[in-house]
Design a protein that fits this description.
elongated, Cytochrome Bc1 Complex, Chain D, domain 2, two-stranded antiparallel sheet, 21 helices
């Protein structure tokens, strides 16, 4: 409530976070799994004296550095930039709660970056054993970073006993930590193999080497698929009850869960029949299909993981509209507009006649001209609703959701949001503010479609 709102038309700011995050997550998991691939395969090439394979791994390392270190760093900064603007309260809670964890993660991130550059830029200038050790230092540092960040994102879904015992380690070892750590470690192995297949199919012309790369990467990929499945089952088992209910009633999430299952099975079967049993199948088309299926399953899983937290951003701690649960009763008493630093200043500046002794008089708001009431309703919408809904058109547009409903029905819905839909946060304003928001929603709702048959036509039909 005490932050200015960042408005992103149509897409909404949380969906912009999702778009950037999905790209970053795919790249960052390759950064982890690809580190293990390079460390293991460079060691194998040195032991077997395979200079041609070593030359390919050098080329792959350049691609790996550019994609994970350069592009990955840009998207990582993009996530921090967008979450800081779109979800400042939730971001602040996570920073304060896990400041020690972030500090540890940054240490390993620095180790990771330094090791990556040494591994690539000192290629051929380091003793073989030292070169391989640098590769393993990078791989384990990247994996530890993954584990630390996974603990924090898992906390967002299920903080566990932290609400009764708010300590750092209780927050880190939450009920979702182990399932998500298993699934994400498996995802790192699987995605790295898919990136390797795509790169090798395009840039390795000699069929013998391409078959070797396919064969050697098949087992980690299959192991990764199994770990994703095991972690996913445990993830579902340890979901909070409301999250399980969201999965059960949301049709789109049911479709996505089915899609994840189908894509995961397809990837597993293609890996087994292709790189594992028939390495010669590794053509650009086959590798591209594997890559698309794998990244589609991963991206869909990320969407589902985010969606089941509703009505929270941080489960049981921060509502989706940037309000602490403990604030709701107070805001219902004093008013949503009065309870926010930026909203109260806006009303005082634009509508001084609505102010009495420095506070907003809710009844005077309803006496304003219609255009002003609708403008205030829009302010309420931006702060209270826009974290999940676009306005007239766009992602989950509120205007479309109330289409055809009379004002009294819209107001009743607003006053009982959490009863009408348990995955929505409760209304956190006064009755008068509900009237203002109702007027705004009515003004942006499209007219009811005329699908009902006229009475005369009904009689003729029968």
């Amino acid at each position: 409530m005490h932050y200015p709102w960042w408005y992103v038309p149509a897409v909404t700011s949380p969906m912009l976070i999702a778009l950037i995050s999905v790209v970053h997550v795919i790249v960052s998991h390759y950064a982890v799994g690809g580190g293990f691939f390079l460390a293991m395969e460079v060691g194998h090439a040195y032991r077997t004296g395979n200079r041609d394979y070593l030359s390919y791994l050098h080329r792959h390392a350049r691609f790996f550095i550019l994609l994970t270190v350069v592009f990955g760093a840009i998207t990582g900064v993009g996530i921090w930039w967008t979450i800081g603007l779109a979800s400042p309260l939730a971001t602040g809670v996570l920073i304060r709660t896990f400041v020690f964890g972030w500090a540890i993660e940054y240490v390993f991130f620095v180790i990771e970056i330094a090791a990556a550059f040494i591994f690539y830029y000192y290629w051929g200038r380091l003793p073989e054993k030292t070169h391989v050790r640098i590769g393993w230092i990078y791989a384990w540092a990247a994996w530890i970073s993954l584990v630390l960040i996974t603990a924090i994102t898992a906390f967002m879904l299920h903080p566990g006993r932290w609400l009764e015992n708010p300590t750092f380690w209780v927050g880190m070892f939450n009920p979702q930590f182990l399932p998500q750590m298993i699934a994400r470690s498996g995802g790192a192995l699987l995605l790295s193999s898919l990136f390797v297949y795509l790169h090798a199919s395009l840039f390795v012309k000699e069929s013998g080497m391409r078959d070797m790369i396919a064969s050697r990467s098949a087992r980690p990929a299959l192991l990764g698929a199994v770990m994703i499945s095991v972690g996913g089952i445990a993830w579902h088992y340890y979901l909070p009850e409301s999250a399980k209910a969201v999965l059960a009633i949301a049709a789109v999430l049911n479709v996505f869960m089915t899609l994840i299952f189908a894509l995961t099975v397809a990837v597993f079967v293609l890996l087994y029949l292709g790189p594992y049993r028939n390495p010669g199948w590794l053509t650009p088309g086959f590798a591209a299909a594997l890559f698309l299926f794998g990244t589609a399953a991963f991206a869909t899983g990320e969407f589902v993981r985010e969606a089941v937290r509703k009505p929270y951003i941080v489960y049981n701690i921060v509502f989706g509209n940037q309000i602490f649960p403990r604030e709701v009763a107070h805001l219902r008493e004093v008013g949503y507009l009065e309870g926010g630093l930026w909203t109260s200043a806006y009303v005082a500046d634009r509508y001084p006649t609505a102010m009495v002794d420095g506070a907003i008089d809710e009844t005077r708001l309803l006496a304003l001209p219609e255009s002003d009431r609708i403008a205030l309703g829009e302010v309420l919408f931006q702060y209270h609703c826009n974290d999940c809904h676009a306005a007239k058109d766009g992602y989950s547009a509120a205007g479309r959701l109330v289409q055809g409903r009379p004002p009294e029905m819209i107001k009743s819905l607003l006053l009982h949001l959490e009863l009408a839909h348990f995955f929505m946060p409760p209304w956190a304003g006064t009755d008068e503010e509900a009237d203002l928001l109702t007027e705004y929603l009515t003004s942006i709702a499209p007219p009811r479609p005329q699908w009902m048959l006229p009475e005369t036509t009904k009689r003729e039909a029968f």
